[in-house]
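It would be a great kindness if you could assist me with a short task in structural biology. The matter concerns a single protein, recorded as an amino acid sequence and a row of backbone structure tokens. Could you please explain, in whatever detail you think fit, how the structure tokens follow from the sequence? Thank you for your consideration; the sequence and its tokens are set out here:
___
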Amino acid sequence: MCGFIGIYGPDGVDVAGEIYEGLLAVQHRGQDAAGITTFTDSFHVKKGLGLVLEIFNEKNMPRLRGHLGVGHVRYPTVGRGSKDDAQPFHLTFPLGVAMAHNGNVTNFIELHEKHFKNSGTRLNSSCDVEVILFAFATALNERMRPGHLVDAEDVFYAVERVYRDVKGAYSVVAMLPDVGLVAFRDPYGIKPCIFGQKQTAEGPWFACASESTVLDVNGYQRSFDLQAGEAVFVGADRKVVRRKLSDKPHRPCIFELVYFARPDSMLDDVSVYKTRRRFGEAIARQWKASGAPVPDVVIPIPDSSRDAALAMAMELGVPYREGFVKNRYIGRTFIMPSQASRQNSIRRKLNPIPLEFEGKNVVLVDDSIVRGNTAARIVRMAREAGAKNVYLASTSPPLVAPCPYGIDMATKTEFVATGRDNDGIAKVLGVDHLVYLERAAMNEAARAGNPKIEKFCNACFTGEYPTGDITLERMNLIASERETAQLSTRGT
């Protein structure tokens, strides 16, 4: 999970300021590193480890000049997570390309062996976007000839070559100096990619981002979501050219709606906010139908479960209360790279309000339960605050399978649901009653926002991977690479 934005502005303007604002809006998608690359007569680059506010300042922003640029916030799924892995990346051939992406290349190790290790070509990092960049630039180079100006057909040829060679889930934005802006979405459309435009006195502006809220904060109108296997190119003539280059079925990641995306975003014409409210209504109906205990109060586990918890409370006809105060200066625990840092962060990030717990039967609402560490700790906190009984509702089904598409779920043994039934999970978490939203209800609530989406990727709930190329051997390779990367990071 990462966040990106690419902007193509009118001649003579600098886009770095808007890219910076966009990265602030998408900071929740990655807190490990951030970067911005722009171009005038050469590439201008600023990247570093940490949050956007820690990396960019009044001293380094002025040098990021140019009306064409890309920006990125990173959370590592492939690679060591070092400064060398911070995006965007750029090459100076065949005419210069700078690129950022969200997702995960599932055949990264094979591509590394084929295109780099065996050929003597050197990688500058352990980040998988570098192989996408290399594949794209190499294909584009095949179209170059004296006096030829790169056009949409050349760009689409290069994207098709990426689709042929690079497997996995990825949305990509790239800038080509003196040529234009390019974006494309993987053949199954697993990762989101949204295109927007605005008109100012200086002329038209074009942008592409991993969430619509990134466009909103900069005043763009959301034009469209790229389809599965679609590329878009904006050249020097400022014409938007779209081309669908794959016929694979569209399978957007449902975990974006469950957890990742901001509630004010629209993904594939689906409101994240309304979908989470529908999740809450659905689990309330399920709660009543199952004969679960009637709670005295519904309390969300901040932040992404708030909308669902409020809807659940209204459907059950019981009070909704804010029972936890969140320290907003602690990052998301789910995307922290080590178990120890997750445990320490859980202890720091939430503090209960005892008045909302004392003597009450409380149902806590969470968006998902992965390893169970956070949930178990919060349940203990609720009991220590005086709750009579603590129930737990998850607005997604049990997670049972690792995700190779860009979510840090490395091995099956890390899931609290592995090898346990509902009662067994409840015992580990220390709750008096546990209800997971049924998968059919989750998908129905998501599809209500856009019935044109036939299916969402549910791989983390089923182990059925839509790309069809995820084998046990490949999963073991990915898990091994992540474990090696984490050991390498600890040693730095």
User: Anything to note?
Assistant: The radius of gyration is 23 Å. The chain has 15 helices and 21 strands.
